[in-house]
Design goal:
The complex is a heterodimer of chains A (343) and B (321).
Chain A (H helix, E strand, L loop, with lengths): L25 H26 L14 H9 L7 E3 L5 H6 L4 H8 L33 H14 L6 E6 L6 H12 L4 E7 L2 E2 L2 E2 L12 H5 L2 E6 L3 H16 L5 E6 L17 H8 L3 H11 L5 H24 L17
Parallel strand pairs in A: 1-2, 2-3, 3-7, 6-7
Antiparallel strand pairs in A: 4-5
Chain B lengths: L2 H15 L3 E5 L15 H5 L4 E3 L4 H13 L3 E5 L10 H15 L6 E6 L14 H5 L5 E3 L4 H13 L4 E6 L23 E4 L4 E5 L2 H14 L5 E5 L2 E3 L3 H11 L2 E8 L4 H13 L8 E5 L8 H7 L3 H13 L1
Parallel strand pairs in B: 1-2, 1-3, 3-4, 4-6, 5-6, 8-9, 8-11, 11-12
Antiparallel strand pairs in B: 5-10, 7-9
Helix pairs in contact in B: 1-6, 3-4, 7-11, 8-9
Classes of the chains: A alpha/beta (343), B alpha/beta (321).
């Protein structure tokens, strides 16, 4: 048994969601695996760039979090719903159809980025694709996501918003205000707490004292559950149910997904504070590798299909990076524009 | 019409005109707001458009931002403008940076009663407009008169940027004037010469405009003809009207009820020094509150806040220079 302060292997005692069996739809499994591989290879490409000293700004790996991003975003209808992702939710961007070139140009702050070089990483918004980015003050966008769907309700629309916060960010006061507000107004909002064990260097037991972060849902008067965040089908199934409840006017859900952040806070961080045995234990639950095995085992894809998918995805990512790097920096004049909307 | 009625009139007219306008705040519905500014509005517009929110300023401002990103024009009330500190991050970090980062409009108005002089203690009296003028990406409005309050509120609701609208609670029922009926817009960023004069310019906004007008009557008896300029909005700032006045009178006092240090008066004084130095016959003097929280006891409050007498004395100083 791990010591009482070690929550690094805590898993739900029970889940109110039914565990997904093999997806009846092989196409869905193929899509989820494809998006998870895109997220994984996006990371690989960014890490490569970082090691070459060419990355600009922080590189925030999502290694270990791919199942949460992809499974949750897949549960939405990207024609009517909206995604308010965090910086480790690149998988969700792909699910919502984000163009790889635009993603890279934004990450690397080159000319042609939606944000004109004013900001980078996963902070951009793409209203056409129904993606609204975050700000570095994590938690600040949760009240915003709540307001977005409140406006939809006022017009009789059924838009659901999916947003994310970490085991550290969940301690920000605005998160509490937003969850309470969403529950009071029965807003179609799904908040996923990605508990990946460490908030920068701070472990769970120094961030919160409740047994599970989803226990808070009861206090807000909303649905809450804690699930294994490395199982993409379980994430998908749990979020589907939450979307259904939201769509039916049953209000918000708080879903804690338990994962492990397999890299540092950002790449400058050697995460020496994480005991190696914890990383070893979690490496057996790698969300991408375990899903690859399952998909192969179920005969949905062959091993060689998966291998070639990974290779082609990585080269697509690297090519997009190269194209982005060929672009110039944005013109300096951009720094003086658009502080206000002029019309 | 009172200052308070004029603001309510603008809100009501804009809500009738534009179905995307709604209001959110604490006790604004059935109760009609702590100052009764939204009284009766829930009867006309219903609880979907007059939203009683929990005591959660971050959720109130944050949800207004989200609704604005989704096509609405929310007006969020801070029960007292002091409580905007609880939603500061939403205004400064999210609302004020969105146009710059995303090229997307965030048409929200955050409004509420500010200011002291009414015995309301340090937490119901603050003048915090300078924080927001310094924040980038936020427009800041401080009306002094009922008609301006109506016209500026209409313009603020129609503006595609986040606006922080400081009402002065001491003016709510104290100041009455004829207010244009029906649709009335005063554009943001246009100062007004409230009282033309030739001897000295007093540049002010909010409650300090009324102190300056009172001071100018006393000073006229001494043969000093004061020009009072009400800047009306801090952001955008109508620099030209201020400089024009300075070029006419050659002497300036800048006055506001907020505390002195790093107040907006320092910005006005600096602009004048930069751009009208050679027209000045005396240093620019500032009149502002003593750098302290606004105290509770009437003796203390009266002592730390500026008033007509402190303006009179500053004007005499610049005239004697």
């Amino acid at each position: 048994m791990p010591p009482s302060t070690d929550r690094s292997w805590y898993m739900p005692k029970k889940s109110t969601s039914t565990r997904a069996s093999a997806p009846k739809n092989a196409e869905l499994a193929r899509q989820m695996l494809t998006y998870m591989i895109m997220a994984r290879e996006f990371d690989a490409a960014m890490l490569r760039l970082y090691r070459q000293g060419k990355a600009f700004g922080g590189v925030y790996s999502q290694l270990g979090n791919e199942a949460v991003s992809v499974g949750s975003a897949m549960a939405l209808d990207n024609k009517i719903d909206v995604l308010f992702p965090m910086h480790r939710n690149i998988g969700g961007h792909f699910v919502f159809g984000q163009d790889i070139d635009q993603l890279m140009v934004n990450h690397l702050a080159r000319e042609g980025s939606q944000m004109r070089g004013t900001d980078g990483t996963g902070h951009y918004a793409d209203p056409q694709r129904r993606i609204y980015g975050n700000v570095s003050h994590l938690g600040a966008m949760i009240p915003v996501a709540a307001g977005f769907v409140m406006a939809g309700l006022m017009r009789g629309e059924k838009t659901v918003a999916m947003t994310y916060i970490g085991d550290g960010g969940a301690q920000v006061g605005e998160v509490h205000e937003a969850l309470n507000f969403a529950a009071v107004r029965k807003l179609p909002l799904i908040v996923i707490i990605e508990n990946n064990q460490y908030a920068y260097s701070t472990p769970n037991h120094l961030e919160f004292a409740c047994e599970r972060l989803s226990d808070r849902a009861q206090g807000y008067g909303m649905f809450g559950t804690t699930i294994d965040g490395t199982d993409v089908e379980l994430v998908y199934q749990t979020c589907r149910e939450a979307v259904q409840r939201a769509r039916n006017g049953e209000g918000p859900s708080l879903i804690e997904t338990v994962t492990m952040r397999m890299r540092g806070h950002a790449e400058h961080d050697d995460f020496a504070y994480v005991p190696k045995d914890i990383l070893e234990r979690w490496s057996t639950k790698d969300p991408v590798e375990t899903y690859i095995s399952r998909v192969i085992q179920q005969g949905i894809m062959t091993e060689s299909e998966v291998t070639s998918l990974r290779e082609s995805t990585l080269s697509t990512m690297i090519a997009a990076i190269d194209r982005a790097l060929e672009r110039p920096w944005p013109a300096a004049e951009e720094g003086f524009r658009n502080v206000f909307i002029e019309s | 019409m009172t200052y308070l009625e004029a603001i309510a009139d603008a809100l009501r007219l804009e809500m009738r005109r534009d179905p995307t306008v709604f209001q959110i705040g604490e006790d604004i519905g059935t109760y009609g707001g702590a100052f009764k500014l939204t009284k009766g509005m829930i009867d006309e517009f219903g609880p979907t458009r007059i939203i009683d929110a929990p005591i959660s300023e971050a959720a109130i401002i944050g949800s207004a931002i989200g609704a604005a990103l989704n096509g609405m024009r929310p007006v969020a009330e801070m029960q007292f403008m002091d409580f905007v500190t609880n939603g500061f991050n939403q205004l400064v970090t999210v609302a004020g940076t969105t146009a710059y980062r995303w090229s997307m409009p965030v048409p929200i108005v955050v409004r509420g009663p500010s200011g002291g002089g009414v015995g309301a203690n340090p937490f119901h009296s603050r003048n915090s407009e300078a924080w927001f003028a310094h924040a980038t990406g936020l427009k800041v409005v401080c009306p002094a008169f009922p008609a301006d309050a109506k016209g500026l509120m209409t313009a603020s609701i129609r503006d595609n940027n986040p606006v922080v609208f400081f009402e002065h609670k001491g003016l709510y029922r104290k100041i009455k004037e004829d207010v244009p009926e029906g649709e009335y817009v005063v554009p943001l960023g246009v100062a007004r010469v409230v009282r033309p004069g030739t001897s000295v310019s007093v540049i002010a906004y909010g409650s300090a405009v009324h102190m300056a007008l009172e001071a100018s009557e006393a000073l006229l008896r001494e043969g000093i003809d004061v020009e009072v300029v009400d800047i009306r909005t801090l952001v955008p700032f109508d620099e030209e009207t201020v400089l024009e006045s300075v070029r006419r009178t050659h002497r300036v006092v800048v006055a506001h009820e907020a505390v002195l240090t790093a107040g907006f008066g320092g910005e006005i004084a600096a602009r004048i020094a930069d751009k009208a130095f050679r027209w000045l016959d005396a240093p620019v003097r500032r009149v502002a509150a003593f750098d302290a929280p606004t105290p509770f006891a009437p003796t203390l409050e009266k002592a730390v806040l500026p008033n007509a007498e402190t303006i009179v004395s500053a004007v005499r100083d610049v005239m004697a220079f």
